[in-house]
Write a sequence for this structure.
């Protein structure tokens, strides 16, 4: 699980647009929101595994 400010820094993005994108991913069932932070859902982990560049 990672906090939004940490993810924003890693991605080099602004917080508000990043959070909007995370909400879109949540709507697709790819992320889980916690009181503080986010993580990939089991579905998100499966998607990442299938689409990872090797």
């Amino acid at each position: 699980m990672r906090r939004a400010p940490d993810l924003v820094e890693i991605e080099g993005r602004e917080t508000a647009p990043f959070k909007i994108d995370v909400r879109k991913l949540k709507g697709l069932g790819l992320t889980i929101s916690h009181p503080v932070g986010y993580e990939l859902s089991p579905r998100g982990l499966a998607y990442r595994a299938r689409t990872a560049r090797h």
